[in-house]
Amino acid sequence: MDKILTEWAEEIASSLQENETFCLALFSFDRKLLYANKPMDSLFKGDPSESLLNPSFEKLLCLNKGHTTIYNGFLTIGDYSSDNSSIKAHIYRKNNKLLVLGSVDSNQLVEQNESMIQLNREISNLQRQLIKEKHTLEKTLVKLNQANADLNEANASKDKFFSIIAHDLKNPFNVLMGFSDLLLENLRKYDLDQIEEQVGYINKTTHQTYNLLEDLLLWSKSQLDKINFEPQRLIFRDVCQEVIINLLPQCQKKNIKVYIYDKEDVIVYADSNMLKTIIRNLLSNAIKFSFANSSIVVKIEKNQEKAIITVSDKGVGISIANQARLWKISEQYSTEGTEKEGGTGLGLLLCKDFVDKHDGKIWVESELGKGSDFMFSIPFLNE
Questions:
Q1: What is the pLDDT of residues 271-315, one digit of tens each?
Q2: 175, part of any domain
Q3: In 3D, which of 92, 77, 11 has the Cα closest to residue 46?
Q4: SS3 for 67?
Q5: Alpha carbon 236 to chain centroid distance?
Q6: Domain-embedded: residue 307
Q7: Domain enclosing residue 72, as ranges
Q8: How many other CB atoms sit within 10 Å of the CB of residue 352?
Q9: What is the DSSP letter of 164?
Q10: DSSP letters along 265-313, please?
Q11: Which of 31, 39, 249, 363 minimizes the number of CB atoms within 10 Å of its CB?
């Protein structure tokens, strides 16, 4: 060993000087630092001799007087008020000088490494737990937002319901009572033409009120989910023709023609009553907003997934700003027809509810002054 140290003294000295874990410092007895390599210098805080905390510089001077080796053990270096480190040190005394040699203890490194591994493991577990809790919170937030949206929709439905009862049902009855009172008081005074005029007003208002009440009751059942959904095989043309026949009086008043375009004789898979309600409401709206002596086309086509039904008119059209309001009950959007026909907007809401039950979509393409195309999709059967 001595031969090796002698033969390789220069190389060993160079290696120790450049080693980042080997610490070396040389002090004079009067506390002056004569030399320190970089690793040792990095441990000092302020005055190097004051940085020897345990054992202190004073204590080292008193240890094992008369011996070259005065200390073998852990040496704490640094500052009590901030950071400090411990190294495994050998301290020697010779010629009124103290030589401090040391390095990090391998067992200490192993323990620190194990501690770091454990800490990393705990951090990873904590991260996984936080991610899981974050995901749970996000799902809860989505549910809360949906519940809040449902609550707002329910409040809007309630407000719409009472608005219709308070206004749209009350006003027609005021008209009915007013004309019937007037007719009763002047029955013997009016001529036949006047009586016919009054009865005409009563008849028109009665039919409008009945249709409104029918839509209102149907819409209420839909909101309560009390309408049975019973899809079946239906020939679309037959269903559409049945609806058109019932709407003939409205068409004849404005001399409007309704055409069915069904080149494939499409057979749909739908609930009969719901499909009739959808077509009836869309056609009624088309008649309402069409000009006299015009035409309406009901067209059905198939794509790869659904049958697409389009109800087209050449009426007044709908602005882009108002198109989005058609399907929101909170907007309560309704306008008068070309001949001052009234409405509540319930018909389109019913259409949307019933189309949704068929797992379909409903939308509108329209331009002011050029008419509207109301479209919806429902399942079809290949036969």
A1: 998 899 899 989 988 999 999 999 999 999 998 889 999 999 998
A2: no
A3: 77
A4: coil
A5: 38
A6: yes
A7: 2-104
A8: 21
A9: I
A10: --EEEEEHHHHHHHHHHHHHHHHHHSPTT-EEEEEEEE-SS-EEEEEEE
A11: 249
CA distances from 184 to 190, 197, 202 (A): 10, 14, 13
Q: From the centroid of its chain, how far is CA 206? A: 46
Taking the alpha carbons at both ends of the chain, their separation in whole angstroms is 100
Q: Kindly state the tokens that stand for 79.
A: 């500052």
Number of domains in the chain: 2
What stretches of the chain show up as alpha helix (H) in DSSP? Answer: 2-7, 9-18, 38-43, 57-62, 106-163, 170-185, 192-223, 236-246, 248-254, 272-289, 320-323, 346-357
Q: With a cut of 50, which residues of the chain have pLDDT below it?
A: none
- Has residue 371 been placed in a domain? yes
pTM of the model: 0.52
Q: In what side-by-side order are the strands of the sheet with 380-381?
A: 231-235, 267-271, 380-381
How does pLDDT run across 153-193, given as a tens digit for each residue? 667 666 666 565 555 566 677 778 888 888 888 888 888 88
